[in-house]
């Protein structure tokens, strides 16, 4: 059963979460995806993990979330190795939005979002009014209030994605890991989602997300981690890492940076 | 909090307000009370109707144990079905899907072929159920212990279904080889029959043993329904929970099958009927399934005893014949 009730205030998070990868190596079969990564993710930062298909973005996110052990090295949260965290305590500190959720049974959107409060349940496991308030706030933040009573099985891909995001939001964890949160979203929802992440970071969250749109990442993320799928990683401030040269090398296609009216964009060079 | 109004979008049918509030403890209690009332009414009916005044002795030594055993079986099957539907994340799962009943039935029929007394048949059925559980555990052990966020349900389901098919072949073989005079008893056993149920206590005891840990795990099962990665991320120990649910569901099925043979339909459909009516919150659904399944089987047994009296029908036939149209009506009436 869940441990004692620890209520975090919705806006100001008591303590930022410091996540660190120490000498992290990830392999799949014989392929080395990431070799000896040393990196710290600090509160207030928004990290974009970019790289070509199969470069290990999902594997890295799920390792950083503590769902699978690294091949070598450790991931530390607040100075403590992830494998040393009890699952229920960890769920109060980090939230994970997986890439796709397949649903077999009906549930209302509200119920699906309310599940994000599971780490806070105590006693017989019934939600308190504060949990319901958190879920309604999360729905409102994503413009989903009108869908609260809808069946999740009847949602479109983009709506489903926003519901998953709302569930992660109402978990109110200071570390947020999101695997492709922008997938299936149309442009204005992508921007709303990114603005929301910026807001969470400003409130003291550490945000890490994977993303295919380098230009949106350059605009909204503060830092980036570029994977090339062969073990080489490049981490740092977003505009330095996602440069035309680095991106061209990682994606194996020539890209160039164009500038217009103070905005920059990476576009294919041919 | 509850004053906050959530508007409905145009075009979607306004669901009940409860869909927005979710399940609450108070609402769950009301549902349980209603179902317990139904079970109580069944019990009173089973004991005193339709013969009117009845000898106290018959009520005490025959009707009451039979009604109790019927309730226990229905409750166990329905609870087991609800648990397996969550475990396998599959609406088609029923208590027999992973082959527990196949093992129990094969061994029970073999015991009947050798003309063992009733307790020998029961013991043999239980041994068969246990063996079937061990088979599944042995073959699918990796699915129970793995900690990485891989969807394990399809493999587990497939393992169970294939083993179940093997048991079914064995049952057919036994029926082919059995002497004619034993066949009738075997067929009754296979379709579920409360005639041989002499004692209610074993079933009710197992019901208690299974129901309490299931209720305690209910909040975690709600999370499991959204997939194993989500459950893992929300701090649910997925592997141990999966193993626990499998063992609880197997114990429930084994106890029900040993008591009354393989009563079909209840375990698949009662949880769905309750889901359609009240939603899929396991904290409400698991106890409600137990109460609803118990009430349904008691009612069906009453019909089985009286419809063609003095002859008796297998209770499993009654549950299916009356339940199928009711369920189809409920399913097709509500379209989201």
Structure commentary:
The complex is a heterodimer of chains A (about 270) and B (about 325). By secondary structure, chain A is of the alpha/beta class. Chain A contains nine helices and twelve strands. The model of chain A is unreliable at about 1-10 (pLDDT under 50). Helices cover about 75% and strands about 0% of the residues of chain B. Chain B has helices at about 20, 25-50, 55-85, 100-115, 120-140, 140-145, 155-175, 180-190, 200-225, 230-235, 240-260, 265-280, 280-305, 315-335. Mean pLDDT of chain B is about 85; it is low at about 1-20. Classes of the chains: A alpha/beta (about 270), B mainly alpha (about 325). At the A-B interface, helix 2, strand 6, helix 3 and helix 4 of A face helix 1, helix 9 and helix 10 of B.
- Helix content, binned percent of chain B: over 70%
The helix tally of chain A amounts to 9
**Distance linking N and C termini of chain A:** 57 Å
Uncertain parts of chain A: 1-12
What proportion strand of chain B?
under 5%
Gyration radius of chain B (Cα, Å) is 21 Å
**Largest interface by Cβ-Cβ < 8 Å:** A-B, 53 and 47 residues
Q: How does the overall form of chain B come out from the CA principal axes?
A: globular
Classification by helices and strands of chain B: mainly alpha
For this structure, the quaternary state is: heterodimer
Estimate what percentage of residues of chain A fall within beta strands: 25-35%
For the largest beta-sheet of chain B, the strand count, sense and barrel status come to:
none
């Amino acid at each position: 059963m869940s441990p004692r009730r620890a209520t975090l205030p919705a806006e100001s998070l008591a303590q930022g979460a410091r996540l660190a990868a120490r000498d992290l190596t990830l392999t799949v079969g014989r392929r080395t995806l990431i070799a000896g990564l040393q990196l710290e993710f600090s509160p207030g930062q928004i990290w974009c993990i970019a790289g070509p298909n199969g470069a290990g973005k999902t594997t890295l996110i799920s390792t950083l979330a503590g769902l699978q052990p690294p091949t070598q090295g450790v991931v530390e949260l607040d100075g403590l190795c992830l494998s040393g965290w009890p699952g229920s305590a960890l769920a109060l500190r980090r939230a994970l939005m997986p890439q796709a959720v397949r649903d077999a049974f009906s549930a209302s959107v509200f119920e699906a979002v309310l599940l994000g409060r599971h780490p806070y349940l105590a006693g017989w496991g019934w939600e308190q009014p504060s949990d319901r308030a958190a879920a309604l706030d999360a729905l409102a933040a994503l413009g989903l209030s009108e869908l609260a009573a809808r069946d999740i099985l009847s949602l479109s891909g983009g709506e489903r994605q926003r519901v998953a995001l709302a569930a992660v939001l109402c978990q109110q964890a200071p570390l947020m890991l999101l695997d492709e949160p922008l997938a299936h979203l149309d442009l204005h929802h992508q921007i709303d989602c990114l603005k929301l992440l910026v807001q969470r970071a400003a409130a003291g969250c550490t945000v890490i997300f994977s993303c295919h749109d380098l230009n949106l990442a350059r605009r909204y993320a503060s830092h980036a981690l570029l994977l090339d799928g062969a073990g080489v990683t490049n981490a740092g401030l977003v505009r330095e890492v996602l440069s035309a040269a680095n991106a061209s090398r990682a994606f194996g296609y020539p890209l160039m940076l164009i500038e217009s009216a103070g905005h920059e964009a990476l576009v294919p060079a041919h | 909090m509850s004053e906050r109004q959530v508007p409905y979008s145009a075009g979607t049918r306004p669901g009940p307000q409860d869909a927005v509030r979710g399940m609450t403890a108070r609402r769950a209690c009301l549902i349980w009370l209603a179902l317990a009332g139904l079970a109580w009414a069944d019990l009173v009916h089973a004991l005193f109707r339709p013969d009117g005044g009845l000898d106290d002795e018959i009520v005490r030594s025959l009707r009451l144990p039979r009604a109790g055993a019927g309730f226990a079986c229905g409750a166990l099957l329905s609870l087991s079905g609800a648990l397996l539907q969550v475990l396998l994340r599959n609406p088609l799962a029923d208590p027999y899907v992973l082959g527990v009943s196949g093992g129990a039935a094969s061994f029970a029929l073999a015991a009947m072929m050798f003309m063992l007394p009733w307790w020998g048949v029961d013991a043999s059925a239980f041994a068969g159920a246990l063996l079937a559980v061990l088979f599944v555990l042995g073959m699918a052990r990796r699915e129970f212990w793995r900690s990485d966020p891989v969807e394990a349900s399809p493999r587990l389901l497939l393992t169970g279904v294939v083993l179940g098919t093997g048991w079914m072949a064995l049952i057919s073989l036994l029926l082919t080889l059995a002497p004619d005079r034993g066949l009738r008893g075997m067929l009754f056993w296979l379709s579920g029959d409360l005639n041989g149920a002499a004692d209610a206590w074993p079933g009710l005891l197992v019901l208690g043993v299974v129901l309490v840990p299931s209720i305690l795990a209910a909040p975690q099962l709600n999370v499991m329904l959204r997939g194993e990665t989500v459950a893992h991320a929300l701090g649910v120990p997925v592997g141990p929970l999966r193993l626990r649910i499998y063992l609880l569901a197997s114990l429930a099925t084994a106890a029900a099958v040993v008591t009354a043979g393989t009563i079909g339909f209840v375990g698949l459909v009662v949880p769905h009927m309750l889901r359609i009516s009240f939603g899929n919150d396991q904290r409400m659904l698991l106890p409600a399934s137990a109460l609803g399944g118990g009430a349904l089987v008691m009612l069906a047994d009453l019909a089985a005893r009286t419809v063609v009296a003095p002859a008796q029908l297998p209770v499993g036939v009654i549950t299916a014949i009356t339940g199928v149209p009711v369920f189809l009506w409920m399913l097709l009436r509500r379209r989201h």
